[in-house]
Design goal:
heterodimer; A: 338 residues; Rossmann fold; 11 helices; B: 325 residues; alpha/beta; eight-stranded mixed β-sheet; globular
Chain lengths: 338, 325
């Protein structure tokens, strides 16, 4: 695997991926009484992927699989323990604080809980001005122009109706639109959306996801969409990464992954998901036994092997499975493809 | 054979007092649940579905303005019982409930086994040993190892804690269990295994369920019948087969079309507009504002029209001589 340090002079062309992540590890040290080290929670533990410009991808996994830690590492909110994150060919570790500020303007963040993400004491105008002030756009007319533009884009129109409102005066869907507007206002090249609709009502979810997708296509943004809900992914992403216990176990274009799942964990996820159908009540679903492993002390070998119906003793419980490519463009880390 | 239903609700109303006026959270519901039947109550947040559950169990907040209607449990009107009789004979013994997010409301300093056994010790006055034996039994029923009886809530995962609160509702062998969003905070695999547990309990013990949820796909895992609520009222009540395959009410149709599906090309569509304010619900049909098939008659309040066996729809399209779509 290529882990040589990237040259800082590498220039960004349209050929280079927007984001390239190699062997990324984000561990959280666990201490007792504040100073005795008891181990590390390996939230992200050896993740590799690249994201192209203008691509919408989804990271899918259950809670505790490390998908939010991955998002926060990409945003520069967590220091990676090891590995490289490159943005437009430059390693994030090499950025100084000015450049890091600049980086944060290029990457927008849409949080899970819109009400928690918006300061309750600011009105919408102030919330949207804040990033502009921080990033040095001080001209009032320019600020106002940009604020109105993003409000129109997120369908909060007429803007005058929303500008003086405080977060608690808006519905959940409108709050999430403000969060999206704030992520867009610095004209980023990438948006990371961490479970953007899980706190919203079912009827609003599709609306917000369509909005994100529309903005992503019209601005040619890269959208990294983090979710636990495979059924929405089909319509709002082009590629899926399935995560389990801190690792990516399978990745492929959406239709390919849904129609030809390779990894036993992906099989289990798909089998557990219901479409509304009265016949569901007649049969029980197959669910792998046990629960996701502790990230403090993950199982040896393949992390899914204790729950896997196809586990081969002497192989799966001993060695980490490498990435196989059982079908074109379809990566799965499972010894079954050996 | 048309036997008396286990639960039959007639014209149930629950209005709350608030600083801005009266909120009509539940506004004239009528339905029934047969023995060993699972009724799913579907609806968006704020449509009154949790208030319905609270009214049935009489666990109401202080700001109730008006509460009326008849609730017959196996032929006796439990709304007419005085509070003490209701507490001693009905609540938890005949109708139990798994409340929304209750898995996070377990007492952190009491072992889960003791918490599960508590209803029997308090309501049936069983001694500790006997109650714990029964707790071990229900633990096995919901799929937790009996070793976990001695654990504290923080030692259990979310899925396990959800099973614990389910065990707590089942320990008194109630005839009806109300489940308020039992799986919405859980992961896909855990969700599926909890639904498996519910199916097995229904099959093996003949328990009736009322499942309250906004999750259409998961609700189909157990539904025998579906009741769809909108703005405090029922808009459609159908068998699961009819509801999921051929929804009748315009709202049911839009709701079904908004569900993202894994195995279908069709892109989910969203329902434009917002539900009405329950402080001042509109005259006439409450869905009219958002309805694509609205016509003049929708200005009048529609009633529930019968549409075949055990199917009712609150929409003028289905009135006698109405223009059925």
């Amino acid at each position: 695997m290529n882990t040589s340090p990237p040259s800082a002079a590498a220039t960004a062309t349209s050929e280079t991926p927007l984001v390239s992540v190699r062997d990324l590890r984000t561990w959280f040290e666990l201490r007792q009484w504040g100073f005795v080290r008891v181990g590390s929670v390996r939230a992200v533990d050896g993740v590799n992927f690249t994201l192209k410009r203008g691509e919408a991808v989804a990271f899918v996994g259950e809670s505790g699989c490390g998908k939010s830690s991955l998002a926060r590492t990409l945003l520069g909110l967590h220091q990676p323990t090891a590995g490289v994150v490159e943005f437009e060919g430059r390693s994030m570790a090499s950025l100084n604080s000015r450049e890091l500020l600049d980086y944060r303007a290029r990457v927008g963040y849409v949080q899970q809980d819109p009400y928690g993400a918006l300061p309750p004491f600011m009105d919408v105008r102030r919330i949207l001005r804040e990033p502009l002030i921080i990033h040095g756009i001080r001209n009032r007319a320019e600020q106002e122009r940009r604020i109105r533009k993003v409000l129109e884009e997120t369908r909060l129109s007429p803007p005058d109706e929303y500008l003086p409102k405080f977060p608690h005066m808006l519905s959940g869907g409108q709050q999430q639109r403000v969060v999206i507007a704030r992520a867009l206002i610095l004209e980023p090249s990438m948006i990371i959306a961490d479970e953007p609709v899980s706190m919203l009502d079912a009827s609003v979810r599709v609306e917000i996801l369509s909005l994100l997708r529309r903005i992503q296509t019209s601005h040619e943004l890269t959208l990294a969409f983090i979710t636990h809900d495979l059924s929405t992914v089909r319509h709002f992403a082009e590629r899926i990464f399935v995560m389990y216990a801190g690792r990516i176990v399978e990745s492929a274009p959406v239709e390919e992954l849904l129609n030809h799942p390779q990894h036993p964990y992906t099989h289990a996820l798909l089998a557990a998901l219901a479409d509304p159908d009265p016949d569901n009540a007649l049969r029980e679903r197959e669910v792998p036994s046990g629960e996701a492993p502790s990230l403090l002390n993950p199982p040896s070998g393949c992390r899914f092997h204790p729950r896997c119906p196809h586990a081969m003793s002497g192989v799966c419980d001993v060695d980490d499975p490498p990435d196989f490519e059982p079908r074109r463009g379809h990566i799965s880390s499972c010894w079954l493809h050996r | 054979m048309a036997s008396t239903p286990l639960l039959s609700v007639e014209d149930l109303k629950l209005h709350y007092r608030s600083s801005r006026g009266v909120v009509k959270a539940v506004d004239g519901l009528s339905f029934d649940i047969q023995r060993n039947e699972a009724l799913v109550v579907l609806g968006e947040s704020g449509c009154g579905k949790s208030s319905l559950a609270k009214t049935l169990l009489r666990i109401l907040p202080r700001n109730v303005h008006h509460c009326s209607g008849r609730v017959m449990l196996d032929g006796t009107d439990i709304m007419a019982l005085d509070e003490e009789r209701f507490r001693r004979d009905v609540r938890w013994l005949r109708i139990a409930m798994v409340m929304q997010a209750s898995m996070n409301a377990l007492n952190p300093v009491v072992r889960v086994g003791e918490q599960v056994a508590e209803p029997l010790r308090v309501l049936r006055k069983w001694d500790r040993q006997r109650a714990m034996r029964k707790a071990a039994e229900v633990f096995e029923l919901v799929g937790i190892s009996t070793d976990f009886l001695q654990r504290y809530p923080f030692e259990l995962s979310g899925g396990m804690r959800q099973r614990v609160v389910l065990a707590m509702a089942l320990i008194t062998d109630p005839e009806l269990v109300i489940l308020d969003e039992p799986t919405s905070a859980l992961d896909v695999l855990t969700q599926a295994s909890i639904m498996n547990v519910l199916k097995r309990i229904k099959r093996e013990r003949g328990t009736s369920f009322m499942l309250i949820t906004h999750d259409v796909a998961t609700s189909s895992e157990i539904a025998d019948r579906v009741a769809l609520m909108y703005a405090g009222q029922l808009v459609e009540i159908s068998t699961a087969g009819e509801f999921f395959r051929h929804p009748a009410h315009p709202y049911s149709k839009l709701l079904m079309a908004s569900v993202p599906r894994l195995r279908q090309e069709q892109r989910p569509a969203h329902i434009p507009g917002q539900p009405p304010n329950l402080l001042a619900p509109p005259d006439g049909c409450r869905f009219a504002d958002r309805c694509p098939s609205r016509f003049q008659r929708c200005a009048e309040d529609p009633k529930m029209f019968r549409l075949g066996y055990r199917r009712q729809v609150r929409c003028w399209l289905f009135a006698e001589g109405g223009k059925r779509p």
